[in-house]
Amino acid sequence: MNIRLFAGALAASVSLSFGMAQAAELEVTHWWTSGGEAAAVAEFAKAAEANGIKWKDGAIAGGDNARQIILSRISGGDPMGATQLNTGRDAEDLVKAGLMTDLTPIAEKEGWKDFIRPSKLLDSCTYDGKIFCVPVNIHSFQWMWVNRHVFEDNGLKVPTTWAEFVTEAPKLKEKGVTPLAVGGEPWQINGMAGVFQIAIGGVDLYKKIQINKDAEAAASPEMTKVFQAIADARGLVDDGFVGRAWNDATNMVITGKAGAQIMGDWAQGEFSVAGQVAGKDYDCLPGLGMQAVLDTGGDAFYFPKPKGDNAEQVEAQLKLASLLVSKETQVAFNLKKGSLPIRGDIDMNAANACMQKGIKILENPDNILPSGEQSFSSDTQKQMEDMWVEYFNTPEMTPEEAQARFVEIIKEAN
């Protein structure tokens, strides 16, 4: 090759490489900022970088705060390359407005419908027959985390159900230990209420309310028992719960300052970072040890349409979407996150005892329930959240008063 042709080829090569490098950079927003969450999201970043996509991390602390910023940026014409949201109806309006990249081509090419389970997860990403997000895990709030040493060291029975926990709770108080670690952020209180609804009220009650929007079920004696149980739980928390972050509440359990916490399975990431061993240092009780079911929410990634519908940016988005559901990435991410994978065709033998419990529960489709994010619109979710927070923070409010408000919300729910 003569020098002129060589120079021309080199210039073209450099130009192409530079263009691809620019196009392959994706700003990725999410609210995974705790120790366990940061370790998990690093696995996604590692997979992206290894496959030629520059991961520009855009972590935003606090789920509620992050969600508002994320949705506002997209609707305001300042889209990121990819963003985490809950698997559900968070981005419904943006999808309808045509602001999200259609993932259907890559989903059909790779057969997502054949391996993503349960099917409700992909259904939550589907609008008008097209797929606009990719589920990356199965999260459930239906867990209670118990510090075994707190009970054993104080000569108490390690509880296996909520009823046993309530029996031992006064004895913990006498020992100067907070029985129940709670974080006062609205989503935490709302999520905890959903756990009581299943554990105390029963699966049928939950289905009637969550799926059928049944106001009579919301007004039933079974639901009254749920409100009473939450009122009882108010007496088991410490005075510092208001505004406490969820991972700070988890740390109270890890360090023995509290006996237990009702929190989603993402808490496992914190136990893992702290070197805690499931079944030895802590126990996990699905459905408060009373209902071995899971509400299958979780996290999904959406890919906002880039400015000018940049084809190379869209190509990078589709490539990242593919990586997020790949077998290797699913294993690495979920082992760190403490969540369950969206694939049933991968080797999870390295999962700890609590994750194995969750995997076993998922084997029976009857054990899988929709989460609040999948059942209700953002507006209805916010109304419920406000009601549960006021009830938990207001001991003077009776179960009957709170239930009457709940019934009105369900009547108008969408």
Overall number of domains? 2
- What profile does the largest beta sheet have? 5 strands, mixed
Number of E-state strands: 13
Rg over CA atoms? 23 Å
Low-confidence stretches: 1-23
**Strand sequence of the main sheet, in spatial order?**
2-1-3-12-6
Quickly name the level 1 CATH class of the largest domain.
Alpha Beta
Describe this structure in words.
This protein starts with a helix and ends with a helix. The chain has helices spanning 3-23, 35-50, 63-75, 92-96, 104-110, 112-115, 119-123, 148-153, 162-174, 186-199, 203-210, 215-218, 221-234, 246-254, 267-273, 311-324, 327-337, 353-362, 372-375, 378-393, 399-411; strands spanning 25-30, 54-59, 82-86, 126-127, 130-131, 133-135, 143-147, 178-180, 258-262, 282-286, 294-295, 299-302, 368-369. The chain is 52% helix and 12% strand. Mean pLDDT is 91; it is low at 1-23. It has 414 residues and is an alpha/beta fold. The protein has 21 helices and 13 strands. The strands form four sheets. A five-stranded mixed sheet has the order 2-1-3-12-6, sandwiched between helices. The protein has a four-stranded mixed sheet with strand order 8-9-7-10.
Topology, please?
Elements lengths: L2 H21 L1 E6 L4 H16 L3 E6 L3 H13 L6 E5 L5 H5 L7 H7 L1 H4 L3 H5 L2 E2 L2 E2 L1 E3 L7 E5 H6 L8 H13 L3 E3 L5 H14 L3 H8 L4 H4 L2 H14 L11 H9 L3 E5 L4 H7 L8 E5 L7 E2 L3 E4 L8 H14 L2 H11 L15 H10 L5 E2 L2 H4 L2 H16 L5 H13 L3
Parallel strand pairs: 1-2, 1-3, 8-9, 11-13
Antiparallel strand pairs: 3-12, 4-5, 6-12, 7-9, 7-10
Helix pairs in contact: 2-15, 2-17, 10-11, 10-20, 13-21, 20-21
